[in-house]
Design brief:
This protein is α+β, with helices and mostly antiparallel strands. It folds into four domains: 46 residues; 128 residues, no CATH class; 128 residues, no CATH class; 75 residues, Orthogonal Bundle (Cytochrome Bc1 Complex, Chain D, domain 2), CATH 1.10.760. Helices cover 41% and strands 16% of the residues. The chain contains 14 helices and ten strands. The strands form two sheets. A six-stranded antiparallel β-sheet has the order 8-9-5-4-1-10. Strands 2-3-7-6 form a four-stranded antiparallel β-sheet. α13 runs antiparallel to α14. The protein is elongated.
C-alpha cells in the first residue's frame, strides 16, 4: 500500500499528463506563474517602501535625522522624496540590478559592519563614494525623475545660483556633480588618501639630497629637534622650501628660512614677507626659543601695519621626504583644482586673486568637493604660489604659463 502511494506520487510529478488533463496543467501552471509573479512584485514593492528602509536601525538612527532637516523632507510644496525615490531606479531591469547590489549593504548590517554610529561614520565615505559613482554613471537618473533643466525657472533662483545653474544646464551636467550632501551629511574626508600622492612619495624616495642644495617637502611632515626624531617641535607643510645641511640613513638636518608675524608666539611661519602662505608651524614651547630660532631682520608690512620677522631655524625631518623641484606637486594640484572645482561652475583663473585672498575664496569652494585634507592644503598652496602676487599674467592670459616673480622677497 505504501509503495503504491509513493509510486502514484512520483508519477504525479514525473508523468502528470497521465494523471491530469492537459488543460488543467496549462491552467494550473498559468495560475501558479501569476501567483508567483504577483508575490515577487509584492515583495519587491515592500522592500522599496520607506517603512522597510527605516525598519533597519542604521537607516532610522543615522540617515533619517539628516534627511528630515532638508528640503527633500519638508518644503512649501508638500512634495517629499522618500528613500526609494533617490536610491532605487524606476526601470525594472535597473531596479533588479540595484537590489542585487544592495545585498552587500544588508550583509554589512547583519554582520555589524555598520551596526553602530561609530562604525557607520567610519564607513560613510565608502558608502557615499559608491552611491556618487552610481549616480554619476547613470547621469543622476533618479534626480531627473523629478528635476529637469527644461522645466526650471532659473530666474527665480538666487543670483549666484542662476550663474551656476545656467552653466550646468548648457552642459547638461549630472545633478550629483554639484549636489553631493544635499540630503545627507557629507563624509569626513580627512582620513582618506589621494593616490596621486604615491607618485610624489616615490619621487622623494629616489631623490638623493646634497648638502647646501634647496629642496621641497613632498607632503606635510613632522619636524624634530634631534637626529633620532624623538623631540617633535612642529610640522612642515607641502611644498615648503628647505636647505639641506646634512643627511643620514634615517634623518636629514634642514634649514628653514621663512617669515613670521611678530605677535603672540609667532608659531606660524610663512614662505614670503607679507603673504599668508604657510610653510611651517612650530610648537609654542620652541617658537620663541633663541637657541633654535634666529631673527635675521624685522620690517613693517605697509598693507597691515604688522611687524614681520625673517627667521631661520635648523630642524630634523625624515629622509625620503623631499624632492628637488615643486613642479610635480603643482601639476597634481592643478589637476585637482581643474577637476574638482569646475563641476559646479567655471573656476576662477589662478592669478585672479592675490595670495592673501585665496584662502577665503578657496574655503568657500572646497566644501563642495571631495578633496581630502592633504589635497586641499596642496591645492591652496598652489593657488597662492601662482596668484597675482607671483604671476606676470595676473587677470589675463594663461596663468599656468606665467613666470613666478614676486614683488615681495
Amino acid at each position: 500500500m505504501i509503495k503504491k502511494t509513493l509510486r502514484a506520487t512520483r508519477d504525479l510529478f514525473l508523468k502528470p499528463s497521465v494523471k491530469i488533463g492537459l488543460g488543467i496543467l496549462v491552467t494550473g501552471g498559468f495560475i501558479a506563474g501569476a501567483a508567483s509573479w504577483q508575490g515577487f512584485n509584492t515583495a519587491l514593492e515592500v522592500t522599496n517602501s520607506e517603512e522597510f528602509c527605516l525598519s533597519c536601525h542604521t537607516m532610522r538612527d543615522n540617515m533619517l535625522p539628516e534627511l528630515q532637516k532638508t528640503v527633500h523632507w519638508s518644503n512649501r510644496s508638500g512634495v517629499r522624496a522618500e528613500c526609494q525615490d533617490c536610491h532605487v531606479p524606476h526601470e525594472f531591469t535597473d531596479k533588479i540590478a540595484r537590489k542585487m547590489q544592495a545585498s552587500r549593504e544588508v550583509w554589512g548590517q547583519l554582520v555589524g559592519t555598520i551596526g553602530t554610529r561609530e562604525k557607520f561614520e567610519e564607513h560613510r565615505v565608502v558608502l557615499a563614494r559608491r552611491e556618487w559613482a552610481r549616480m554619476e554613471a547613470n547621469d543622476s537618473r533618479e534626480c531627473r525623475a523629478c528635476h529637469d533643466y527644461k522645466d526650471m525657472d532659473i530666474n527665480l533662483m538666487r543670483p549666484t545660483s542662476q550663474v551656476a545653474m545656467r552653466a550646468a544646464a548648457e552642459r547638461d551636467e549630472s545633478c550629483i556633480s554639484c549636489h553631493k550632501g544635499i540630503a545627507h551629511h557629507l563624509p569626513d574626508l580627512k582620513g582618506t588618501h589621494n593616490p596621486a600622492f604615491d607618485t610624489l612619495v616615490s619621487a622623494a624616495s629616489s631623490t638623493r639630497v646634497k648638502a647646501e642644495d634647496d629642496y621641497y617637502a613632498v607632503l606635510p611632515h613632522k619636524i624634530y629637534a634631534d637626529a633620532e626624531l624623538t623631540q617633535e617641535i612642529g610640522s612642515i607643510e607641502v611644498a615648503a622650501k628647505v636647505t639641506v645641511l646634512e643627511a643620514n640613513d634615517d634623518a636629514q638636518r634642514v634649514e628653514l628660512d621663512l617669515w613670521r608675524k611678530n605677535k603672540g608666539f609667532g608659531r606660524v611661519w610663512y614662505s614670503n614677507f607679507g603673504l599668508n602662505i604657510t610653510s611651517a608651524i612650530l610648537s609654542k614651547e620652541v617658537s620663541r626659543d633663541e637657541n633654535l630660532v634666529s631673527v635675521l631682520e624685522s620690517k613693517e608690512d605697509p598693507a597691515t601695519g604688522l611687524e614681520w620677522q625673517n627667521v631661520k631655524a635648523e630642524v630634523w625631518m625624515p629622509t625620503a621626504s623631499l624632492i628637488d623641484s615643486p613642479e610635480e606637486i603643482w601639476e597634481i594640484a592643478a589637476a585637482s583644482y581643474n577637476q574638482q572645482c569646475s563641476t559646479c561652475h567655471r573656476q576662477p583663473e589662478v592669478a585672479h586673486f592675490d595670495a592673501n585672498s585665496w584662502p577665503a575664496q578657496f574655503g568657500g569652494m572646497v566644501g563642495f568637493t571631495s578633496m581630502d585634507d592633504d589635497t586641499a592644503k596642496m591645492v591652496l598652496k598652489y593657488l597662492q604660489k601662482h596668484s597675482s602676487d607671483f604671476i606676470e599674467t595676473a587677470h589675463g592670459g594663461d596663468p599656468t604659463k606665467g613666470v613666478i616673480q614676486s614683488a615681495r622677497p
